Amino acid sequence: MGVANKMSIAYGALNCLLDQGAEVGFSYHPLAAKRAEKIQSESGSSFAIECDVEDPKNIERFFQQVEAQFGKIDFLVHSIAFANTEDINGNYYDVPKDGFLKAMNISCFSFTSAAKYASKIMNENGSMVTMSYYGAEKYIPNYNVMGVAKGALETSVRYLANDLGVEKSIKVNCISAGPIRTLAASAISDFKKLLDWHENNSPIRRNTTITEVGNNVVFLASDLSSGVTGQVIYVDSGYHTIGVKGKDSDSI
Are the CB atoms for 25 and 46 separated by under 8 Å? Predict the structure, then answer.
């Protein structure tokens, strides 16, 4: 869920899953309809269905269409987040209630809602994966309400892992990806500085790619991760392990 364009993390996941022989369809926001049609045609994915997750009825309808297409499913990948630009930048305490609720609804509750409907048509030992970022647990400039929403998303993963694990042995995990130049990231002020800092200070001294995230989606969606659930998996070139600026990193 959430393919926006060829730079999106969801697109990386889609391609990696297809490369490993999975049968995959995807959802897209109504504003991305033309791009989604082209991506479906070029990728050979099974379907592309519009879904605006701000309305829970759209999510329910989406999974009804998925069931009509596939019957049962083995995995769900959720890669959807949004906050108003003015609510990301500036001071967190300036975020108005409606902006806060919008960010939480799209970036966090949409996964909980999707998990509810997906679980009804998911096979035993299935897998659900969503996407987070390090700003969920540490302060990141110009991330603000999105960091709070991602924090709630990561907590949701742990609760869903228990609920769905007990009921159907479904795994629920989260990937915390390093900063990647996506459409969503374009709303973050000074994002280029964030990329440069990450590249200069991560243990392997480079940024993360959508393919690297996608490969980890494949792992979590497969039986190779059968004992992994309720986890936040970092795919960030090791940045989350660093405490201070690297001694040999370039000045920024």
Answer: yes
Query: How many domains does the structure of the chain reveal?
Result: 1
Residue 2 placed within a domain: no
Q: What is the largest CA-CA distance in the chain?
A: 56
Q: Quickly list H helices, the chain.
A: 9-19, 33-43, 56-70, 85-88, 97-104, 110-121, 144-168, 191-201, 210-221
Q: Give domain status of residue 212, yes or no.
A: yes
Residue 143 domain flag:
yes
Residue 57 covered by a domain? no
pTM, rounded to two decimals: 0.93
Active site members: 133, 143
Listed range (134-143, 202-211, 241-250) with the worst mean pLDDT: 241-250
- Binding-site annotation: residue ranges: 2, 8-9, 52-53, 80, 83, 150, 180-184
Question: CA-CA distance, 241 to 150, in Å (whole number)?
Answer: 19
Dist. CA 151–CA 130, nearest whole Å: 12
Parent domain of 108: 72-241
Phi/psi of residue 122, nearest 5 degrees: -95, 140
- Known binding positions for NAD(+): 2, 8-9, 52-53, 80, 150, 180-184
pLDDT digits (tens, 9 = 90+) for 87-119: 998 899 999 999 999 999 999 999 999 999 999
Annotated binding site for substrate: 83
**At 95, which CATH number?**
3.40.50.720
Q: In what helix (H) or strand (E) does residue 172 lie, and over which residues does it extend?
A: strand 171-177
